[in-house]
Each structure stands twice: as C-alpha cells, then as structure tokens.
Design a protein that fits this description.
By secondary structure, this protein is α/β, with parallel strands linked by helices. The chain is built from twelve helices and seven strands. The protein has two domains: about 230 residues, Spore Coat Polysaccharide Biosynthesis Protein SpsA, Chain A; about 70 residues. Helix 10 packs antiparallel against helix 11. The protein is elongated and about 90 Å long. The N terminus is likely disordered.
C-alpha cells in the first residue's frame, strides 16, 4: 500500500506519546505499539519530542520516514509533559485518543483492553498500576498519598491518577484545556462535565533504559495544581461564592474580636487603644472588603471570558428533537 493511500485512511485510534531523552526506548516502543494494534484498528502514532538532547528526534525521523502512520511534533525546548500531551491531543484525528509514556513502563499490549472498555459506554478509561515497579519512598508512597488526596478533593475516586496510560473519547479532550501539571486531572475535569469515567488494571514494567524524569519535587506541584482544579471545578462560574465566603468568615472574626474589645473595656476597664485585638479586628475588616472586591472582579472576568469566547457554562451530551417540518405534518 502506498504512503498516499495510507494517509487517506481516517485513524480510529490516536496514540499520543510524550517523550524526553528516550532514545533507547523508542524502537522497542514503536514495535510493541505496532504489534498491539496492527490488524485490529486503523491508528496513528503521535510522538511529541519535548526538547530532547539525545538522539530521540533522529530516531523519530527514521520511524516517520518508514511508516506514514507516525507523526512527530518537536518542541523548541522542554515545556513539560502537560504541554506535550496537549499538543498531541490537539492534533489527534482518531475518535479515540490513547496516551502513554515512552519509557516502556506502560505496556502497549494494554491499549486494546482500554479501547474495549470505552465501547462499554465510558468516556475516559484510566490505567491503574496495581503492581508498581518503582522505588517505594520516592515514587510509590508520594503517589499513594497524592491519589488519595486527589480522589477526596475532586470526588472522583481513582486509584492511580498519575498513570499516563489512559484512553479518551476525543470529544472529551476537546472540552479540556491543560496548564501546569494538570494532565493527571483530566478524569476529574471530564467527570465534572458529565463524562463517564472508569479504570482498568494495567501492566506496569520496570524501567530498563533511560532515567526517570520525576521525583519528590513534583508532589508540591501536584498539590498546587489540585487547588487550582478544585477552584475551577467548584467556582469557575461563580467565584463570588469562594471569595465572598472567605469575606463573610473574616467579617465574623472581625465582629467577634471587636465585641471582645468592647467587653474588656466595659467589664475590666481595659484600654482599647492598646488592645491588639482592636488592631486585628480592623485588619480583618479591611481583609473582608478585599475578599469581596476580589470576588466581584473575578465575577466580571468570568462573565467577560464566557461572553467574549462565546463559551457556554454547560456541556451538552446529546440533543433529541423533531424537525419543524415533521411537526407541521
């Protein structure tokens, strides 16, 4: 089959692989993905070179020259895994998008299983590395704590948010904008929009080549991004509830401390001018005003954003209706 003929086929599955300095893993990864999907689905492979300094890009050029199903995106510098995945998702043409790491710890043989799970009616299928081959203190323990925290805060219970191996319906990704380290929160973001999310146990293999790119320092980024995700999920269309709530709380504290100052003055003849609670009460009043003003400004920004982008504050799954012509007959 000619390359031109292959290019005309619409892929059913887009496999998105972000990578950084994985020259030794790319050839076997390509072979394993090809073996798991050839003869089952029409597919494409999208590799995103996130600023590699080794021979990764040269290897990818060779793969693309020999296989028209391979597409390569090369960043000018390292922008991070979220940016790489976002670039791959934006260029995916398949109805199903599967993401996995390039370090061979995710098993490409699991891809058909995730795709089959989507066929059961789910929109997102997340991999669960039930048996992990990573260092206990550096990777397993922080991951377990992070997964528990994310599940509790978001209300979307998954065992392994950090597993890159996930399958998505493309329309779900079209509604999701990724920043920071937020790729791991896609299941939660999608669930808040009404997507059906589940997980499958997947094979996890020890790294045999290359070096791990993440350590304990990533945990802090995850916590900060989790705060952002929670705010977006709960208050993105009504920020006054968040800031106004904080403002009411500080106002209550200000009233309480002011009452204590007055009580001490009346009952114990305490000098009000030298009472630190009076100063604290004044500071809290100012803080209350600031919180409320921040909430009002945020409300203006949210309304300006949605109106200027013509973005609704809701997501429609499907519409059932009869045409006007049918109704007139």
């Amino acid at each position: 089959m000619t390359k031109a003929a292959n290019d005309k086929k619409q892929p059913q599955i887009s496999v998105v692989v972000p990578l950084l300095d994985e020259q030794d893993n790319l050839p076997p990864l390509y072979e394993q993905i090809t073996r798991s999907l050839t003869g089952r689905h029409e597919y494409e492979l999208i590799f995103i070179d996130d600023g590699s300094t080794d021979r990764s890009f040269e290897i990818l050029k060779g793969l693309q020259a020999s296989d028209p199903r391979v597409r390569v995106i090369r960043f000018r510098r390292n922008f991070g895994q979220t940016a790489a995945l976002s670039a791959g998702f934006a260029r995916a043409r398949g109805d199903v998008v599967v993401a996995l790491d390039a370090d061979l710890q995710n098993d490409p043989a699991d891809i058909p299983m995730l795709v089959a799970k989507l066929d059961e009616g789910y929109d997102v299928v997340s991999g669960w590395r039930k048996v992990r081959h990573d260092a206990a203190l550096k990777r397993k323990l922080p991951s377990r704590l992070a997964n528990g925290l994310i599940s509790y805060i978001t209300g979307v219970r998954l065992h392994d948010y950090g597993c890159t191996l996930k399958a998505y319906r493309r329309e779900i990704l079209a509604e999701t904008r990724l920043y920071g380290e937020m790729h791991r929160f896609i299941p939660a973001l999608a669930s808040w929009s009404g997507a059906r999310v589940t997980e499958c146990v997947v094979n996890h293999r020890p790294r045999t080549a290359g070096k791990a790119k993440y350590g304990l320092g990533r945990t802090l980024k995850v916590v900060l991004d989790l705060m952002t995700v929670k705010f977006l999920g709960s208050f993105s269309t009504k920020p006054i509830y968040a800031f106004g709530g904080l403002g009411l709380f500080t106002a209550l504290l200000a009233f309480l401390f002011a009452w204590i100052v007055v009580y001490q003055k009346i009952e114990h003849k305490t000098d009000m001018s030298g009472n630190p609670l009076l100063l604290l009460s004044a500071v809290l009043v100012i803080t209350t005003v600031q919180f409320i003003l921040m909430g009002l400004i945020a409300e203006l920004l949210v309304r300006t954003y949605h109106e200027s982008q013509n973005r609704p504050t809701y997501v429609i799954r499907e519409v059932l209706e009869s045409s006007d012509e049918q109704g007139d007959n």
